[in-house]
């Protein structure tokens, strides 16, 4: 069984990094030397990001501010990147740390503590109808999670979790069953569903109307700019034979 990653010297880490750079796979290194592949991958990430100094043993755990963690989490949730890429970009030694931040954030827990069930600072209590309305608003507005946080005064983590549940199970998936009897199925009435559908359509209409207005304005600018472009074209004199 291999040692823990922090018990390897810098020289040893460089040796295994060199093996991978030379074409040997992390799994092959485990079979021959007993070093866990995840350690080797982390060493390579650190080395590529910060050179030899990044491989030195860290005597004390790095502390990150809540603002910094939130910035990294939202960068991941926006899409188009991976945990290792973000670890290199923000100089975070272990990409699994980002995974834990994202997991805590999307489950509505605080980023600054690992205590179970701690609510986020900017979260608030909501009803099932509110959660459905917010989820529908996000979908109607092209998955605008950030816009929903300011529009409805809720946290990003709450919005993300509600949309995910709503897409998987509809309005019934957003029932808060804590402290409720089993016979309470959380079914919305016909009137409530009708009101929610009207709000969804209004949200979608507002979003589309904004897009149309922007498009019209852009077309107006293009029309205004067209005569100026024509006037700047070089004058070509026709030569008679």
Automatic annotation (TrEMBL):
UniProt cross-references to SUPFAM superfamilies, sorted A to Z: TrpR-like
Domain Insertion element IS150 protein InsJ-like helix-turn-helix: 130-181
Entry's Gene Ontology molecular function annotations: sequence-specific DNA binding; transposase activity
InterPro entries: InsJ-like_HTH (IPR055247), IS150/IS1296_orfA-like (IPR052057), Transposase_8 (IPR002514), Trp_repressor/repl_initiator (IPR010921), WH-like_DNA-bd_sf (IPR036388)
Gene Ontology biological process: DNA transposition
Similarity comment: family membership: Belongs to the IS150/IS1296 orfA family.
The protein's name: Helix-turn-helix domain-containing protein
Organism: Lacticaseibacillus chiayiensis
């Amino acid at each position: 069984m291999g040692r823990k990653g922090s018990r390897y010297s810098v020289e040893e880490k460089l040796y295994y990094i060199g093996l991978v750079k030379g074409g040997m796979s992390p799994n092959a290194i485990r079979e021959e030397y007993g070093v866990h592949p995840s350690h080797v991958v982390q060493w390579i990430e650190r080395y590529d990001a910060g050179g030899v100094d990044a491989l030195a043993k860290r005597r004390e755990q790095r502390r990150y501010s809540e603002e910094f963690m939130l910035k990294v989490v939202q960068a991941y949730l926006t899409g188009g990147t991976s945990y290792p890429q973000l670890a290199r970009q923000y100089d975070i030694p272990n990409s699994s740390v980002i995974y834990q931040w994202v997991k805590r954030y999307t489950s509505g827990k605080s980023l600054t503590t690992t205590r179970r069930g701690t609510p986020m600072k900017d979260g608030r209590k909501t009803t099932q109808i509110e959660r459905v309305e917010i989820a529908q608003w996000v979908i109607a507005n092209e998955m605008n999670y950030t816009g929903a946080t300011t529009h409805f005064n809720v946290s990003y983590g709450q919005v993300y979790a509600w949309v995910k549940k709503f897409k998987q199970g509809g309005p019934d998936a957003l029932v808060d069953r804590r402290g409720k009897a089993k016979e309470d199925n959380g079914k919305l009435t016909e009137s409530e569903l009708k009101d929610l559908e009207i709000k969804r359509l209004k949200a979608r209409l507002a979003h589309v109307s904004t897009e149309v207005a922007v498009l019209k304005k852009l077309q107006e600018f293009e029309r205004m700019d067209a005569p100026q472009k024509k006037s700047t074209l070089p004058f070509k004199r026709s030569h008679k034979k």
